[in-house]
Structures are given as structure tokens and as C-alpha cells.
Write a sequence for this structure.
């Protein structure tokens, strides 16, 4: 019998759940837009539908959720979901499903998924960046997923790329997320990111490359795996701009040769990442 996992993604734009096999095959999945209020009841209904359609009972559950979070207390406070401040997400999912449940930042779970069966297979030192409605990241160093004091390591979206730049929802100014998230691009252009002008695509790549050059110098990483609807939708011109900016700015001997790689899991990355968390493939903690 195929071993299966329940995978849940709680994002600011959408909620998704799936049954994923131990071979990373998505057997059942469903999704809904994230409501303005009553987010947890919407998650619970979604999970019940997916479990009802599961070909086999899952053995564990992994949940990716927007941050910040407090790992010791097992609570989440997604920046764009104010109704879930200090929400005990792991305990609620366990009560709903009866499954042992692990919760982590959804961008960090994507790093796990890319390492398990995506573009980062075989890489021991890399950052995974998810660019969709927000900008998040997960850092793997020496084959280990970096956690930080409260589980919030990897928030690359809040590296400052424009001093005294535009306000960011985090409360700061000039953050990468304030320029390069799907939400920020749409607010600036009045268009969805997939219709952004070429100048915005290239500027987004430059800002991401700027952040990566700094991160590479701090962490001694060798590569960035970049996915999410914004990055993958922008395609080759975006990735070329990122690589060119990294090449220009990463001049230390140990940062030269830093590679920028498109994510390999596409739109399924958050769910496969959540399954990787459940599976325990956690690029060993």
C-alpha cells in the first residue's frame, strides 16, 4: 500500500490541501481562495474534502504557512492574515485530523521539497526563494534547514534593497517584498504580475540579485533556487537579470560562481514541500 501524507498550504491568496505519496506524486488536491475572515474554518472544510477523497489514509501531516511564527509555541502569525495572529495551527490540525502534524513557514517547506525531488536535489548549500503574492525563503546550509530562534530563518523578503524606499507591510522600508512580491507589482502597475512591463521584470531581477549577493556573502551559499508564480511567470528575462546582478556584485572569491536556478516543482511546490515536512525529509534538522 502506498504511504501517503496530508499536505496543507495556508497562503494569503489561496488555501490548498493534497494527498501526496512517498514518491512525491500528488494523488488528490483541492484549493480555494483565502477568505477575508474565518480562514481556519475554510482550511478545515478544505482538509475534510481532501481526506474524504484520499485513496489511502495519510500517516502524517505537514503544513506550510506564511510567517512569522513561533516554533516553540507551535503558533503562526501570518503577516497578511490578521485573523490568525498567534494561532495554534499545529494543534488545530492535529485535533481535526488525528494525525501527527508539523508546521513550518511555507517558503521553508518549499526548500525541503526542492531538496527532496526538485531543482535542489544534491545541493547542500542553497537558498530557496518563493515569489508569489509575497517573497519568502528557506536556507539550507551543510545539508541542514536553518531554523533560527523562533523558526523564522530565511525571510529574504525583508532584506533591504532600497534604503528609505517604499513602505513594507512588515513595518520597515525598502524591503525586497515591497518591490518584488506579486502584491507589490500589481499595486505599482495596476496589472497582474504576468502582464508587468519588461522594465519591471528586469528591475525585479536586479533587486533579487542584489539581495542574493548580500545573502551569499553572509552565508557562503552556492546557489539560489527561485520559484513561485511571479518568478516562473517572468521566465528567462527575469532569471537572466538576477544572474547578471549576482555576477556583478558577488565578487568575493567564495561567492563567485553563485548559480541562479529556476524552481523545479512549479505550482505544486508548496504542497510537495509540506509533504516533505510530513515525511521527515527535512534536510535533517
Amino acid at each position: 500500500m502506498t504511504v501517503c501524507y496530508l499536505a496543507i498550504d495556508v497562503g494569503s491568496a489561496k488555501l490548498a490541501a493534497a494527498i501526496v505519496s512517498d514518491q512525491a506524486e500528488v494523488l488528490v488536491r483541492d484549493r480555494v481562495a483565502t477568505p477575508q475572515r474565518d480562514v481556519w474554518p475554510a482550511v478545515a472544510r478544505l482538509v475534510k474534502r481532501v481526506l474524504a477523497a484520499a485513496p489511502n489514509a495519510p500517516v502524517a501531516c505537514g503544513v506550510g504557512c506564511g510567517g512569522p511564527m513561533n516554533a516553540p509555541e507551535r503558533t503562526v502569525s501570518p503577516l497578511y492574515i490578521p485573523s490568525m495572529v498567534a494561532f495554534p495551527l499545529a494543534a488545530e490540525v492535529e485535533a481535526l485530523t488525528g494525525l501527527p502534524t508539523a508546521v513550518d513557514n511555507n517558503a521553508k517547506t518549499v526548500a525541503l521539497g526542492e531538496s527532496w525531488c526538485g531543482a535542489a536535489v544534491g545541493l547542500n548549500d542553497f537558498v530557496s526563494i518563493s515569489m508569489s503574492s509575497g517573497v519568502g525563503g528557506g536556507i539550507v546550509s551543510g545539508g541542514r534547514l536553518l531554523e533560527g530562534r523562533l523558526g523564522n530563518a530565511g525571510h529574504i523578503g525583508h532584506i533591504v534593497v532600497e534604503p528609505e524606499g517604499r513602505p513594507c507591510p512588515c513595518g520597515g522600508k525598502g524591503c525586497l517584498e515591497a518591490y518584488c512580491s506579486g502584491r507589490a507589482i500589481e499595486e505599482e502597475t495596476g496589472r497582474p504580475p504576468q502582464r508587468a512591463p519588461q522594465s519591471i521584470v528586469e528591475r525585479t531581477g536586479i533587486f533579487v540579485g542584489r539581495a542574493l549577493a548580500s545573502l551569499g556573502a553572509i552565508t557562503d551559499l552556492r546557489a539560489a533556487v527561485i520559484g513561485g508564480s511571479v518568478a516562473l511567470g517572468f521566465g528567462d528575462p527575469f532569471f537572466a537579470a538576477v544572474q547578471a546582478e549576482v555576477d556583478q556584485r558577488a565578487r568575493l572569491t567564495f561567492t563567485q560562481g553563485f548559480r541562479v536556478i529556476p524552481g523545479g516543482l512549479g505550482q505544486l511546490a508548496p504542497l510537495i514541500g509540506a509533504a516533505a515536512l510530513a515525511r521527515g525529509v527535512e534536510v535533517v534538522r
